[in-house]
Amino acid sequence: MSDSFPREHLEGLWAPWRVEYFEHKETSDPDFLLTAANSPDDEEHFVVARRKTCFLIMNKYPYSAGHLMVVPYRKINQLQDLTEEEVLETWELCVHAQQLLTICVRAQGFNVGWNIGRAGGAGVDDHLHMHVVPRWIGDSNFMTTISGTRVIPEGLTPLYKRLREARSSLEG
């Protein structure tokens, strides 16, 4: 790098959200979705909302800030195994997630979808879940493409609290 490079124009990559990972004990619970489904402590597992057959949870390793997942309580791995009630509640929670993310992170669009099976890109291939990923115009940048790094501007806990407050006001 040249000495004449305008260093005053450089910005630091600030990632305060990383401290949340360092402060928590390392646990690699392969059944973390089932654990969250059965836990009474929503905050510990970042569960945003619950319905009769499905729940809405934050992704702890998000593609972008606010990445949520809709998960049936039952541990199934195929769409055809969903009951009619689970199908309906999955889509209702997907709509609810979009409303929350529009309020909390000002999402301008969404990627919504399923990664079914390991070949389909599922990180958890034995517990079906739908991804709801907020997007913004111009949110693509070189970091993911060139450096294999995603920049997540907000920590999980502060965003979780905002999502729960927004949920209360929407449902209230």
UniProtKB/TrEMBL annotation:
Binding site for substrate: N59, G121, A122, G123, V124, H131
PROSITE patterns for the chain: HIT_2 (PS51084)
Short sequence motif Histidine triad motif: positions: 127-131
One Pfam family cited in the UniProt record for this chain: HIT
UniProt keyword annotation of Hydrolase present: yes
Entry-linked InterPro entries: AP-4-A_phosphorylase, FHIT, HIT-like, HIT-like_sf
Keywords associated with the record: Hydrolase, Nucleotide-binding
Record protein name field: Diadenosine tetraphosphate (Ap4A) hydrolase
